[in-house]
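Quick log. Single chain, no ligands specified.
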Amino acid sequence: MSIASERGKNFERKVRKITAKILKIEVKRDSRSGAGETHKQDVRSPYGVLPLFIECKDQEKANLKRDWRKADQQSSFGQAPVVVFPDNEETLVVMRYEDLLNFIKEGIDWRESAEKYRVGVDMGDPAGDKSVEINPFELPKKKPAAIKNTSKLKTCRNGHIADQFGYCMAKKCPYNRTYKAPKEKKK
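-> predicted structure:
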């Protein structure tokens, strides 16, 4: 195995580790390094949680325009192509400026809509600032009354955040694409 390919693999491992640590999601490095038929990206999340097509490049003479065009051609619908490359001790990225702005806008919209789901203040607290937050990705204990969705976010029938096609993002929700009903234990 050549030194260049080993350096590329080490950089892909580094990018996977950084991504998993910061986003706190499961991220895998493709051992075939994009040689598969469907998954061409170097680093990906198994269930498509990560909306990025990550192409890692650690080369002596980088051609970022060529690498970005390749990532753009190979990316799937709903994935923003990015080329990740090292520069001294930093890890940098090349991506479409509109995609960056859309991610920022989505985060701002989510933050604004999350404010609507906050639970009221505990009256026993003299400061009056003790509030409880609801995690929209957790399944509720009991089925809540229908919540009117006034935000621009799509939700599933259980009220969880949904993708662009209406499938739930909560893994344990029956309206998730990958949901499998729990097996009944044999007596």
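Confidence is low (pLDDT under 50) at residues 120-125.
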